[in-house]
Amino acid sequence: MAAARLCSLPGRALCRRSLGLVCLQRGYRGDSPMDSGKDVLEIPLPPWQERPDEPLETKRARLLYESRKRGMLENCILLSLFAKENLNRMSEQQLNLYDRLINEPSNDWDIYYWATEAKPTPAEFENDVMAMLREFAKNKKREQRLQQPDLEYLFEPSH
Asked: pTM of whole model > 0.70?
């Protein structure tokens, strides 16, 4: 009887009968017009701030760390490999652009979609670093990019 009451509540649960048993399924409704949004928890993020007095080596180390520790695996792999290949040869201006790119947007999927050209990049992020990231994401050398790089390369002597 309780399951029947739950099934009568619109938008609370989807029900189906399977082998005589009532199974409750919960699912994401997306942009459903019936979605009130009351169950969405918005966590305010502090605004991104440029760090003009940060030493370059500290900035590179921080950006390397932040490239590796993302909210989603796809960006962990993409950005950590990009950082390994590019951070050491970026100018201070490019490092600042990269810092803004990976830290200002609050949604990691946006960065991924822009890099893979699934969505257009907003004008404020359209710059040479974004072009470098898009080119890197194309993977023209067809490298296997299944995991983040090991950190041993940080301790190898410079050539």
From this structure: no
